[in-house]
Amino acid sequence: MRRLTMRRLAVVLTALATTVLTAGSAAAAPAPTAQNPALVRTESGWVRGETTAEGRQFLGIPYAKPPVGDLRWRAPRPVEPWSGVRTAEDFGNRCVQTASWDPGYENPSHTEDCLDLNVYVPEGAGKRPVMIWLHGGGLTAGAGEDIVPDTFARRTGTVVVTVNYRLGAMGFLATSGLDRETRDRVSGNFGMLDQQAALRWVRANIGRFGGDPGRVTIAGESAGGRSVCTQMASPTSRGLFRAGIVQSGAYADCAARTHKEAVAQGADFMEKLGCASVACVRGKPAKEVLAAQADFDWGPVVGGDFLPVQPFEAYATGAAARVPVLNGANQDEGRMFAFAQFDANGTPLTAERYPEVVRAVFGAEQGERVLRRYPVSDHPSPSLAYGTAFGDFLMACPALRLNDVLAARGPVYAYEYADRTSPPFASLRNLGTDFDFGATHVNEVQYLFKHFGLKSPLNAEQRVLSRQMIQYWGSFIRDGVPRADGQPTMPDGQEKVLSLRTASQGGNSQSTTVHREHQCDLWDRDRP
Hints:
This protein is α/β, with parallel strands linked by helices. The chain has 18 helices and 16 strands.
């Protein structure tokens, strides 16, 4: 079958994201006192957060030097120590990105000083397990502040860290000139290296906040899940975490750009900016860089020290981290993509156009197969027929393939979020549409955290499912095995997944039919 190109996939995800002075030693650092529970000394200096009804929170802590000037498109450098006490009560800057339909993202950000993180600490003594959350947004949008996990931290007894990292061209530009500045001659992984810098900050500092640096789980959704998938395959992140959570992150089999592809795209990007040298592009204002980055594929690059081989190859050959993984996707992933492509623009897909669109996206030969498997007559509308096919192709079946390849190298616990009673997540609710999103992409996030810091829209039975999911996730973070009181176990292996549903939809249950339901025999054709 003709596969979607990474550039085409990146364009889809990007369009969605834009629519829908001396530090003391560790031994000398005092613990927070009863009088100042929100005062902590990091390796770089003191920070003062605040105490809330859920615990303590420390916002906007820098973990690396601002990547500005000559540090643009270089690996992150250690943060400069500061004197006095740094106030940590407000989120830091969002990294360079366009405006979007997400709450609070009405304006673009042109700020490169953005390498900050946020720490949420529940009440209580002892060393707590740690979850590091990598946000979604197609690697071109979003910020650590997109979730507020303070209630999750309290309910699970987990210290949660959310991270900003460089995005789009600022995070993933590869050129021959930038290659010459790197030790391994492979550029383009700056955003991924930011994530690793945050992981190293956590290892060095999280004990001062009550976290256990030996019990760290990395987690993320969508591009954040893809980041987890990538970091687990990176030898340079080895030892920085003991488990991973991948939520809707296996799209395109977590594949990175080849070095050749990335450098060719980088040359086209520089030409678009009117530059022939690294010095020229470093001198361009962030606003111009952002304006030029549309229609390019921004993501990791394979072939260097950071990622010697593609993630699935690393998993299959035993080269990846052998850590427990919780992995899954949502039942109706593609409905949001269909909405963004058609209905959001006031042009719902029609039955007449459906065959044309399917063939254009999947190719003539595979398109005919898709039309036979996903006839419009089997779905409430052409948009939902397309969304079902696209979601199975893009998210559902890659997640199941990831289960298969991960199972050969360690425990993998499989779920499918399938609550079709779910309200649309905040960005979609803001649009005031009656489109039937079902259990679409991103919708599970609001069952785990306060999404964009907003009040939960869940009803009584949805809140029950939310508590169960938080128990599954929290148990996995604490012990490496997901459990919930009175609920079925989350399967470890390849044949079953745990379907997560509200009681009125049948409740949580193990399923052996998801491969068939998502037509994965069609989407797995011609794959090794």
